[in-house]
Structures are given as C-alpha cells and as structure tokens.
Amino acid sequence: MNTKKLTLTIVFAALAIALNPTFTHIALYAPFAQGLIYQIWEIPIVVAFLIISPIAGLTISLLNTAVLFAIFPGALPTGPVYNLAATLSMQIGIFAVLTIGKRISCSKNKDTTVLFKAKWATVSTAFGMLTRAAFMSVVLYFALPQPSPIGYSFPIEATIGYLPFAAVFNASLALYTIPIGFLIAQRVQKVLHLTMPQEIKCNTAQK
C-alpha cells in the first residue's frame, strides 16, 4: 500500500470513529425493531472499500468494531459483533457486483471502467441490501433466542416475528449508506487523482 492510500485508510478510519453517535449524536433508533440504530459511521467504510481496497474496508470495519466495544456497544454488549457482520456482508455484496461488472464490461468494451457507472452503483446497492438483510436474518435467527449478552432470550415465535423488521432495517440502512459511499468515493477519486482498485482498464489485446 502506497503512502497516499495508507494515509487515506487512517483518515477514513478516524472518520468512521468520529461519526459514532457518542461524539456526533447522529443516530435514530428504529421504531419498529428493538436495539437497532440508523447511523452514518459505515459510510466512510464503504468509501475506503471503494477507493482503497476491500482489505482497507475490512481493516477499518475491525477497528471500528473495537472502538464500538469501548464506547458504544448498543443494546447488547456483543452488539458491535453484529454490526461487523452486517457491514462485511454488505461489502461482500458490493464486491460481488463490481467483480461481475468488470467482466461484463470488459467483454463488451476493451477500454472501460465500471466503478462509478450509475447502473453498477444501483446494482451494488441492491445486492448489498440483499446480502446484508439475508445474512443478518440467518445470524439473528440463531442469536436472538440466546440469553444475554448474545441475544434477548426470545422464544422462537418472537424471533421469527422479529426477523422481517430486522431485514427491513438492514436493507434500508444499506439503501442510503452505499449510494452515499459511491458519491463520496467518486469525488475523492477526482480530487486526489486516484487509481481505484475497482476501476478497470481492460486489456485492449484481449479477445
């Protein structure tokens, strides 16, 4: 990792931490799902994932989780673990779409980029919503019936009833986090003249 990208990783890690509701008071508790909070600290993580690398996204996610344990665990002491799982599953969805997008675009146009095309940003958002909501539904199905600090000791009927609301929460959080992340990443790329890991110049000799 070069100096510019290392510096950016540190900056976005600090920004993710600074956007914690403990410092900004920017948070909205979901009125329909116990213990879930709409927040904006994941936006810098998505930006770092896009303009630096998926490893940078993972690193900042892990660092942010450690900080959450210390200052803002949420309704459960293990809450930051669930946030980490949600954030990573969303990044996996974005990564899958951009990887497929590169291959499709290169097969049609030998000199193309896909990161900031509106259609790929839209598809990335949709798939990030899907992977996050689906993965967290599975996690919560097994976690919620457990006693604290893992879950809330929900009976299985209450757990099943809660899952649709949790899925709506996870999908709607990704719905604003991913597009905003794309927009900010695009701006940062232009200002700093970065060569993005998701941006691809296809081999003109490729058949």
Keywords:
mainly alpha; 207 residues; Arp2/3 complex 21 kDa subunit ARPC3; globular; single chain; 2 strands
Account of the protein in words:
With 207 residues, the chain is an all-alpha fold. It has one domain (3-192): Arp2/3 complex 21 kDa subunit ARPC3. The chain has helices spanning 3-18, 21-24, 42-51, 54-71, 79-108, 118-143, 156-192, and strands spanning 28-29, 37-38. A two-stranded antiparallel sheet has the order 1-2. β1 (28-29) and β2 (37-38) form a beta hairpin. α6 runs antiparallel to α7. It starts with a helix and ends in a 15-residue tail after the last helix. The model has no long low-confidence stretch (mean pLDDT 88).
Tally of extended strands? 2
CATH class: Mainly Alpha
Query: In terms of structural class, how would the helical and strand content be classed?
Result: mainly alpha
The overall pLDDT, averaged over residues, is 88
Instruction: Tell me roughly what share of residues is in helical segments.
Output: 55-70%
- Envelope shape: globular
Low-confidence stretches: none
Give the biggest sheet. Answer: 2 strands, antiparallel
Strand % is under 5%
Order of helices and strands: HHEEHHHHH
Domains (count): 1
Q: What is Rg?
A: 18 Å
* CATH fold label: Arp2/3 complex 21 kDa subunit ARPC3
Ends apart, CA distance between termini? 31 Å
Strand arrangement within the widest β-sheet reads: 1-2
Task: Output the number of helix runs.
Answer: 7
CATH architecture: Orthogonal Bundle
